[in-house]
């Protein structure tokens, strides 16, 4: 054959290779042939095996169904949601190269995903590794948030960063934990809508939306799942073969309080009532389970999956332990369990309390520190003309007892009120057995007009566990954790505890709604004859404690929940949030025994001064 003819045939083959569609294989087939799990990515590194997570086969393969353009996954934790998305990315990188976008809740999470999950995927899967790293000139534009490969590229974006969403057209869109997305990407509207608009150029687009659910009526994944096939995984009863979903209300367990261990857990069949253990329900998993849809949909498949269906890394006994722990901690922890384990929506009750109901619950304590208290904390609200202080005791399940309310009046530009504050925070309180308590943590509000003074006051007192606090609230429905980290970015280099006040208010209102005596409930004292302090828990206090209400607001047409003041003063509510943050800082063990009568309780001894510059490393 003449050289010119050979060159022509070679050119024809190259052209055919460019325009011909890829071999028709599924994501599952691609993953089993090409995906290699990394040490950073999995407890079991090595070749991907779908039989380890058999419930994922149907979900993964839906992403290559030519009749489907949208896949919705509303699922709990410990189910391999990220591994599923990585397989989709790998498929559309190595087998059917396409422009891809992966959207995370924020740029920080996006960076971690790129470094900890995407990087190892591309590095350790041989087919993908060939596409990266060898040609520096081709990859010179590659960054943490952008990587190019032959035939495509991937952008890793944050829902809170409009610039990261403003890429060129994309064919493959993946959005992870969409219930944690920003309400608006800057001033440009819904980040999900912005990302979806990037896909409209492609007739063969694929969109994958994944999240654990949150609050009913406010959850993004709920809306998408409702507009889908609504498929749930059904298990055959080991006794009668009846197909059914696994339900928490049919779980029966035996729990040993002394050892904190679940000794037995079974699930009852809804048809025949037979009780079977987890391994019996999950035997021959691939052949005895079935995804069943409750709706028809032309283009969108939706999947709901509880962590009870997990095959690795999570068991029913672990779920029982989490359930027991959540019930001890209170309503907020139960909400987390419902969302992240059962993958169910939380139905929020109206968050409004009447102050008279709480005031009528006041009771006479037998001592300044009532029975049940294991630790005490203090919180200080800084006003222009006074310090408002609340001292709170804490016991099992984050049950709380108000111990002392105090106000220091004075010009905060003068030294006198600061001296009085220092003296008050040096006090101790005793229970009926004579045990001495001192606050294990004290948080002082640094907002307002005296920020620098608060920093200077707290810095030399950090060895006494006294810290400055900065309340944070985004105000657009984005959740800020109660404890949102610490900062020392100030002139005195004081440790400042960052507190998510909206999350804190939700926790406080959940606690206030509980009947006294239940785990997580709040208790209040009647005036005690031994308490000469005139600032008792009076009607004004309870009006302040209930001075806000959770309401629905809208931004860019999207609903979100926000706290709004219904009364002028809310210092008592702020102090309640600060005290809750203070106790959570120490990760308390409420099962620790108290010292003998007359002894010194945990935190009552003054700590020795640390030689380290930052004594708040344990926060």
From TrEMBL:
Residues 300-589 form the Terminase large subunit GpA endonuclease domain. Pfam families: GpA_ATPase, GpA_nuclease. InterPro entries: GpA_ATPase, GpA_endonuclease, Phage_lambda_GpA-like, TFA_Chaperone. Residues 42-291 form the Phage terminase large subunit GpA ATPase domain. GO terms for molecular function: ATP binding; ATP hydrolysis activity; endonuclease activity. It comes from the Bacteria. Residues 594-619 are annotated as: Disordered. Residues 605-619 have a biased composition (Basic residues). This is Phage terminase, large subunit GpA. It comes from Paenibacillus uliginis N3/975.
């Amino acid at each position: 054959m003449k050289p010119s003819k050979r060159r022509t045939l070679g050119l024809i083959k190259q052209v055919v290779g460019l325009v011909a569609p890829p071999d028709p294989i599924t994501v599952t087939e691609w993953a089993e042939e090409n995906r290699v799990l990394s040490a950073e990515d999995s407890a079991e590194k090595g070749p991907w095996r779908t039989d380890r997570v058999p419930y994922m086969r149907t979900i993964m393969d839906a992403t290559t169904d030519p009749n489907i353009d949208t896949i919705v996954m509303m699922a709990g934790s410990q189910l391999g949601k990220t591994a599923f998305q990585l397989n989709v990315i790998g498929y559309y990188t190595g087998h059917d190269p396409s422009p891809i976008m992966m959207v995370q809740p924020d740029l920080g999470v996006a960076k971690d995903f790129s470094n900890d999950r995407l990087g190892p995927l591309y590095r350790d899967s041989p087919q993908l590794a060939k596409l990266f790293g060898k040609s520096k000139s081709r990859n010179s534009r590659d960054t943490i948030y952008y990587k190019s490969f032959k035939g495509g590229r991937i952008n890793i974006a944050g829902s809170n960063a409009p610039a990261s969403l403003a890429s060129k057209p994309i064919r493959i869109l993946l959005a992870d934990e969409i219930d944690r997305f920003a309400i608006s990407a800057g001033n440009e509207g819904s980040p999900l809508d912005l990302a979806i608009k990037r896909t409209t150029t492609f007739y063969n687009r694929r969109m994958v939306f994944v999240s654990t659910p949150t609050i009913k009526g406010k959850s993004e994944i709920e809306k998408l799942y409702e507009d889908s096939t609504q498929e749930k995984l059904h298990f055959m009863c080991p006794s009668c073969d009846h197909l059914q979903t696994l339900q928490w209300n049919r779980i029966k367990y035996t729990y040993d309080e002394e050892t904190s261990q679940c000794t037995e857990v079974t699930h009852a069949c809804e048809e025949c009532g037979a009780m079977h253990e987890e391994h019996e329900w999950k035997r021959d998993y691939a052949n005895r389970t079935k995804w069943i849809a409750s709706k028809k949909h032309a283009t969108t498949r939706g999947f709901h999956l509880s962590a009870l269906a997990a095959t690795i890394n999570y068991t029913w006994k672990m779920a029982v332990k989490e359930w027991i722990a959540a019930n001890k901690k209170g309503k907020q922890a139960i909400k987390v369990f419902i969302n992240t384990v059962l993958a169910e929506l939380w139905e929020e009750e109206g968050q409004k309390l009447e102050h008279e109901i709480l005031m009528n619950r006041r009771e006479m304590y037998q001592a300044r520190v009532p029975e049940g208290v294991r630790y005490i904390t203090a919180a200080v609200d800084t006003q222009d003309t006074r310090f408002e202080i609340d001292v709170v005791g804490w016991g099992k399940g984050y049950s709380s007892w108000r111990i002392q309310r105090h106000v220091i009046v004075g010009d905060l530009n003068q030294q006198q009120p600061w001296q009085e504050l220092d003296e008050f925070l040096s006090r101790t309180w005793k229970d009926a057995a004579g045990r001495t308590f001192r606050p294990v943590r004290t948080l002082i509000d640094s907002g307002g007009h005296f920020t620098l003074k608060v920093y200077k006051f707290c810095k030399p007192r950090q060895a006494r566990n006294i810290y400055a606090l900065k309340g944070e609230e985004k105000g657009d429905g984005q959740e800020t954790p109660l404890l949102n980290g610490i900062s020392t970015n100030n002139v005195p280099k004081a440790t400042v505890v960052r507190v998510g006040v909206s999350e804190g208010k939700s926790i406080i209102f959940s606690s206030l709604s509980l009947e006294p005596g239940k785990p997580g409930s709040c208790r209040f004292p009647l005036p005690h004859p031994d308490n000469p302090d005139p600032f008792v828990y009076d009607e004004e206090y309870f009006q302040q404690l209930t001075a806000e209400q959770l309401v629905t607001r809208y931004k860019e047409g999207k609903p979100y929940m926000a706290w709004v003041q219904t009364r002028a003063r809310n210092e008592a509510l702020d102090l309640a949030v600060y005290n809750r943050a203070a106790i959570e800082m120490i990760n308390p063990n409420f099962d620790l025994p108290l010292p003998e009568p007359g002894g010194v309780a945990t935190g009552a001894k003054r700590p020795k001064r640390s030689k380290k510059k930052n004594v708040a490393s344990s926060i």
